[in-house]
Specification:
single chain; about 230 residues; alpha+beta; Sortase, Chain: A; 2 helices
Length: about 230
């Protein structure tokens, strides 16, 4: 009887230890679950906030552009040629990929502060002209910005509108979309015809890739900026 009683006591203590250990493990899992949920909510909230700030900044730039871009300006005499001689606010609209962004300029194209706000003009490239020259812009394709995310979907003949503050719209038609080595800057060099070049990372969602995706457009015409920007698809 005493042996049975002692065995029962040992068994009871062992069961209690197992239950205590199991309860402790369960508490740890619960704490970890709560931590992961809070961390997940924090990451989502932070990402949403940053995306909101990007969109808000673009909206501010768009409003500033529209307030000064001569949307109601009427040209008495159309000039034979249009040449933009210094940087001024510009707006990129590509209906085929539902893109409408205000471009940045006046600084280094590799300045992340500029690139985080919108497409950025290459200082070593030209300014818009109806005669010759290649105006080039760089834009993010990774992270929360994704300004040039869908450039790869452009097809030959698609239109690119570049609106400038002076009240003109440069209308380009896509000639080609190609991939280049990230050290090959020839596509943004000056051209003997009026062109636009858009540059972004290749592949998508990679912050420091080995390749660049370039889209080249050739100028078709220069017109007055419409009173209202066209609706995108």
């Amino acid at each position: 009887m005493d042996g049975s009683r002692n065995s029962y006591r040992r068994g009871s203590r062992s069961e209690r230890r197992k239950k205590k250990k199991a309860a402790g493990t369960a508490r740890i899992y619960k704490v970890l679950a709560v931590v992961l949920i809070v961390a997940g909510v924090g990451v989502i909230g932070y990402t949403w906030l940053e995306q909101y700030l990007v969109d808000y900044r673009q909206q501010q730039l768009r409003e500033e552009f529209e307030a000064t871009a001569g949307f109601h300006r009427i040209f008495e005499d159309e000039p034979e040629k249009v040449v933009i001689e210094e940087w001024q606010p510009m707006r990129l609209i590509i209906p085929a990929i539902d893109m409408d962004l205000v471009a940045q300029g006046g600084g280094d194209v590799f300045d992340e502060t500029l690139l985080d706000k919108g497409p950025t003009h290459f200082q070593m490239s030209d300014l818009p002209s109806s005669e010759e020259g290649n105006v080039a812009f760089a834009g993010h394709r990774a992270g929360r910005w994704n300004f040039f995310l869908d450039i790869d979907q452009l097809e030959e003949g698609d239109e690119i509108y570049l609106d400038v503050e002076d009240g003109y719209r440069f209308i380009y038609e896509v000639e080609w979309v190609e991939v280049f080595c990230k050290y090959d800057w020839e596509p943004i060099h000056s051209t003997d015809y009026p062109a636009i070049t858009l540059q972004t990372c290749e592949p998508k969602h990679v912050s420091n890739p080995d390749y660049r995706l370039m889209a080249r457009g050739k100028l078709r015409e220069v017109v007055e900026i419409p009173v209202e920007a066209p609706e995108v698809n």
